[in-house]
Amino acid sequence: MDVSNLRTMKVRCCVVGGGPAGMMLGYLLGRAGVDVVVLEKHADFFRDFRGDTVHPSTLQVMDELGLIDGFLKLPHQELQKMDGIFGGVSVRVADLSRLKVKHNFIAFMPQWDFLNFLREAGKRFASLKVMMSAEATDLIRRGDTIAGVRAMTPDGPIEIEADLTVACDGRHSTVRERAGLEVEEIGAPMDVLWFRAGRRPNETENVFARVDPGKMMVTFDRGDYWQCAYVIAKGQYEAVKARGLPALLDDVVRMAPVLKSGIAEVKSWDDVKLLTVAINRLPRWTRPGLLCIGDAAHAMSPVGGVGVNLAVQDAVATANLLAAKLAKGCPSEEELDAVRKRREFPVRLTQRVQVIAQNNIITMALKGGNQPLTVPLPLRLVTAIPWLQGLTARFIGLGARPEHVHSPTIAPSTAR
Predict the structure, then answer these.
(1) Which has more pLDDT, 211 or 372?
(2) For the domain that residue 77 is a member of, what is the CATH number?
């Protein structure tokens, strides 16, 4: 590296990755007066087919931060009852109206709107800086301690020295890889094809999940379009492509006739995005001077749409446990590991339930065959017993051990 024009920066905390975990942690640390920089490798947050489900647990955090009124003024749709069709039989997976919380619904909102909202709200904290188009490329080390990151920006390379580096850079984390942290793979039997279909104003349907022999898909009403997730067996993308796009779209319309008028908007395979599903986690989330949270610590299946919200919960727990300590320097590795100890139970429990759903519903559906599907007993019970719909709603909407904001706050000051 040519160091002749190398820039340097020193901060208390460097957060790598401007997704839900990174932006929420940056906001919370800035709110606490911690000198923090968030690095986002892209020039903006606009990426299609990212997690757009904001669950009651996250809405509760936004409320505790005093941000909920402005947040809910952004365009969004709200869902309370999660209904599906399993082999032609109607089922109800969850009823969030039964939750005893202020915001008992899932808000569907483009993730870029959520992240832009946090960035704008954080501008009132002088201690928070968000650097766009800044891609972390390596770690700075002092012996066994991680002492910051090296990044590439439009203005050239920069070294950011930090007492604490937090990896929030997703399931393909560069920081995690550079730190040599081992990933424990749990596995998933499926991948997902994401696409949009047009929606006419008079088209309404509350069904979000459809399962037929050999096929499964999820549809979300996004106001002026349908967001669709077509589930395929793991590694079968090329085989699906070989059948041709018309064959795929014919299957889609047969499963969801409501999409018939808008499916023409899917014109080529460029309009279909492959999400390679993974479930994994780190046995160890830390090195001295380094902490991994969110997808960098635990990749979640899309089952339940909980990934964004677990990432936000990680950020809240991290700020609760570390913000005050960061004011004095880098917490010890034992203090950093308190985040894993706090968050590992909800992560493991959620992943366990996702694996059960995969093995007992998704795998069975993807096997295909001519035999009609039988609704699994747990789904029959939840559909028949309304109060059970409140239990599933609690797991999906709030999760295990939901976090509340306890991190310190300082009076806002003019942004730099």
Answers:
(1) 211
(2) 3.50.50.60
